[in-house]
Design brief:
With 407 residues, the chain is of the alpha+beta class. 54% of the residues lie in helices and 20% in strands. Strand 8 and strand 9 form a beta hairpin. Helix 3 (118-147) runs antiparallel to helix 8 (314-341) and helix 6 packs across helix 8 (314-341).
């Protein structure tokens, strides 16, 4: 691809990425904002993006609404929240109280974040990550309610020679009754379950000609070249599945069932994330699937291109783009919600950790300890970002591209 081609295609990657990231971050920060408002907290700023303001407006309650130049995040600034770690110690609180009373009079401090009860501060901190899970549930529910799905028992359509499925004894025509103890209604369930279980035996109950058999198959770790996410090493059985034509049916769901399926889908993604992290710690995964901003932008762009390339009218293509980007948004929202709940200072989970200490010790953690924790947390977050960026560049083939240029 030439430089001109890259420039021409840039909007197709950047605009979908901005749509996805703005929706996730905006929703997350709005949850912090609304939780703070519900607790009667005074708020200075709500910003989408970082850096200098591109647009700003102050409402009647004194909140400055900002749209900033760097669209890679956002924040809510509560009044009096100036401590580097976000949780002032006893001395800082005493000084802050004195300044507020001097400027606004006795009792005014009760409207400030740091003088609210611990449970309210914890509620505000947890609201953002929890809202990310809620967003995922709602999006998945809307998508399945709009599109419906084809469900039914899955049948093995083909088995690749020399792969794990053949070694386990699976054959074309076998109907999957349960896969690792769970009923299977779509091929995606099997694909997602095996991706992160290479080397782990999976019991599969099948129906072969009316006779039930239990087969144990062990996915093999293979290099997968996915057109959307790039190269990655994942577990594969080496078989294709499809619905049993005699039992398959197209189903449309109502609001309640759609929400249930949305919650189930969200939990599946969270469970997969936890499984993946656990396998990294025991040495069964390398961490090459951890992605960052570049990977997100690449996936958003490729998803958009795939939707546009589908047959149909302009309206249908636009609807496909929106649906596919919404599903990507939901999946990323689960990851961001989980990441923010990690007990790392600078993240919401770090604030919850500090509040837990304060609840037990009946006093805030010392400022110096907090600052050290903040610095360590910042290093961890930056390290994770660099690692994710390295993975993104590798998946997108940049290193191979550069190697070809200089070979």
């Amino acid at each position: 691809m030439s430089v001109i081609d890259i420039i021409a295609w840039a909007p197709a990657y950047i605009l979908p990425f901005l749509f996805v990231i703005t929706l996730i971050i905006g929703w997350h920060e709005m949850a912090h904002f609304l939780a703070g408002r519900a607790c009667g907290m005074k708020i200075d700023t709500f910003s989408l993006g970082f850096g200098p303001a591109l647009f700003r407006r102050v409402d009647k309650s004194g909140v400055e609404w900002r749209l900033s130049w760097i669209p890679l995040g956002g924040y809510v600034k509560f009044a009096g929240d100036a401590n580097v770690a976000g949780v002032p110690d006893a001395e800082d609180l005493a000084e802050l109280r004195r300044q507020i009373i001097e400027a606004e009079g006795p009792g005014a401090e009760r409207n400030y974040y740091h003088f609210k009860p611990i449970w309210q501060r914890a509620f505000v901190a947890a609201a953002g990550p929890i809202s990310n899970f809620v967003l995922a549930v709602l999006i998945f529910a809307v998508v399945v309610a709009v599109t419906g799905e084809v469900v039914g028992p899955q049948v093995v359509q083909s088995v690749q020679p020399g792969q794990a499925a053949e070694a386990a004894g699976l054959k074309a025509g076998d109907r999957i009754v349960t896969f690792d103890g769970e009923a299977v209604n779509t091929p995606e369930q099997v694909v997602e379950h095996t991706m992160l279980r290479s080397g782990t035996p999976i019991p599969i109950l099948i129906d072969r000609g009316g006779k039930r058999m239990l087969i144990v198959a062990t996915p093999r770790r293979v290099l997968d070249r996915d057109p959307t996410v790039g190269e990655r090493k994942i577990g594969r059985l080496g078989m294709t599945l499809g619905p049993d034509p005699k039992l398959a049916r197209y189903v449309r769901y109502g609001p309640i069932k759609s929400l249930q399926l949305g919650a189930k889908r969200t939990w599946t993604i969270l469970d997969t994330t936890l499984t993946y992290i656990g396998r990294i710690f025991v040495g069964k995964e390398s961490g090459d699937q951890v992605g960052g901003v570049i990977g997100t932008a690449a996936v958003a762009g490729k998803v958009t291109q795939q939707a546009i390339s589908m047959d149909g009218s302009v309206g249908l293509k636009a609807a496909n783009v929106v649906l596919m980007l919404l599903q990507l948004t939901a999946m990323l929202s689960v990851g961001i919600g989980f990441l923010n709940l990690l007990p790392i200072p600078v993240l919401d989970g770090g604030h919850l950790l500090f509040y837990a200490y304060e609840a037990v010790a009946r006093k805030p953690l010392g400022a110096k300890v907090q600052e050290v924790g903040y610095q360590v947390g910042l290093v961890l977050v930056i390290g994770l970002m660099l690692f994710a960026t390295w993975n993104d560049l590798h998946k997108q083939g940049l290193f191979k591209f550069l190697g070809g240029l200089f070979s």
